[in-house]
Amino acid sequence: MAGGVGTPYMKLYNPYLKRANLLHITSVAILCSLFYLLGVWQHSGNTFVSTANTIPTTHHTACPPTPTTTKPPTTTTKTETTLDFKPHHTFNATEELKSYPPCDIKHSEYTPCEDRERSLKFPREKLVYRERHCPKKGELMKCLVPAPNGYKNPFTWPKSRELAWFANVPHKELTVEKAVQNWIRVEGDKFRFPGGGLCSLEVLMLTSMGLNSSYHSAMVLSGPQSILVVGWGAYLLSRNIITMSFAPRDSHEAQVQFALERGVPAMIGVMASNRLPTHPAHSTWPTAPDGQFLIEVDRVLRPGGYWILSGPPINWKTHWKGWQRTEQDLNAEQTAIESVAKSLCWKKIKEKGDLAIWQKPTNHVQCKANLKAIQSLQFCSAQDPDVAWYTKMEICITPLPEAKDIKEVAGGELKRWPERLNVVPPRINSGSIRGVSPDMFTQDTDLWKRRLGYYKKVNNQLSQKGRYRNLLDMNARFGGFAAALANDPVWVMNVVPTISPVNTLGVIYERGLIGTYQDWCEAMSTYPRTYDLLHADSVFTLYNDRCDMDDILLEMDRILRPEGTVIFRDDVDVLVKVKAITDGMKWESMIVDHEDGPMEREKILMAVKTYWTAPPADQGQSTNPTS
Fold first, then answer.
1. What DSSP letter does each residue of 458-488 carry, written as one string?
2. pLDDT at site 225
3. How many CA atoms lie within 13 A of 613 on its CB side?
4. Distance CA 234, CA 238 (A)
5. What's this model's pTM, rounded to 2 decimal places?
6. Which helix (H) or strand (E) element contains residue 296?
7. Above 50 in pLDDT, residue 14?
8. Given CA atoms 566, 572, 575, 576 in this order, what sign does their dihedral have?
9. 471, 490 in Cβ contact below 8 A?
């Protein structure tokens, strides 16, 4: 073709012109890159780290030097423009870096929302005084909770199941009270957990329930007079069943603390007037006034879940004298339990020795008809059954999703473990989670597998077995971070913040994972030094202007073990502010690029809490963490 529209079309594909254009473009690109790098070298002493093989061991400044305070020349015409090529992700170095002193040694086991002195201001009726009662903003401590003198890194899993350092949890109360059961004893500078009669109970329980790969998550609730948390959770893990243990902070000084030290999931909690901040699982717990506690257990049990009771009043005919209670009292208590269980439509599976097991129905088709006939408990109609943060219990049955017939599992049947971990959960398939599609879930699962791979490149200790055991995901969404870690010898507490736009805790439990609700403007219901690693994905963007950033970071310092790791993901400007505060907390940290490259505004801040402890008792107040 000659002329017309054909000429430029042919020229576009002329190979000689194309090669010349490529050479020209390449030359310009190289020159631009050289001048850009020269400018960066001249004007910036530091930059963000793009790759790394280990977590930091010394301080790294993630920001360039503070820009000059000299103002640029004033423009004389409206058409002139002053271009500013300087980086703006900086912390004002002229401001004095705020440092945080150590708290007094008496606060080494401080749990802000379960403070004993504050709890006495609340009524004892229904154990309300043992519930969460958090300090107000003006009462928050601006200091670093010290580890006790002599604190050592916990034993690695599974050795930690049998052993714990005495210096880490310096309490002997349980060794005296539970000496007969042989659950715990002191051996030199260590605690040993032999297990006592728990293994035989475990075998009976698993045999009676027919537990197999259908079950993966369970809940162990410790009541005011029973202590299950020091044993059950640890040994069920050997059966590939992860437990979520609760116990109050009471006269048995360290039930939850011992469990966490051993590498077993646990939280401080109590059955009182509020709902448990968790979701349907499988559960064990004793009785309650007016059936209220069993009704709450029914709420958190999923369709077909089991309730296991070990201890008073089961087998009271054998143990009543040892329990120092009358036969009449114990008989009446068991009769009340049987009555409430029946009104909840539970089926008693077995009672043998010191153990009794009930099963919740898989749907309420037959239950609704039975309840109308006997005019017993009614179904709840007001509150959302998934809402549990500071929500009062109700004396009514939480209705299950509708089922077509008696054979259908309400809400959808779960896959067996481990398949259920990565298949789309029934809640999402049914469309009951607003704004969440199956494709979104699948993409999120794949995304976190890729992100975990990047984390392990940046921090190679994530690939070392035994370095981490207790993990916390502060903004878990669907639990993708925990799911990606499923083959590692770790457990993850998945937190759904109470201000999250979508409530996904039910999805987390349907995957066979564990989790809880939490408002990060308040302290978590756990002891200091609970976790080896914290994962904070967009937490500070989520809580922007809701509470002070340093209050959240001080709480993170409280629940993180010495030499523990934190992985922050957030906007670069947010991370610069976070780093400035953590520097004042004497953490070692560095900012690295997003897994998709340096052009992403979202960055990753890797931080490590430095090791320091309180001084010996005869030296008084804790020394500064810098020493």
1. H-GGGGSTTS--EEEETT-TTTHHHHHTTTS
2. 30
3. 13
4. 7
5. 0.82
6. helix 292-300
7. no
8. positive
9. yes
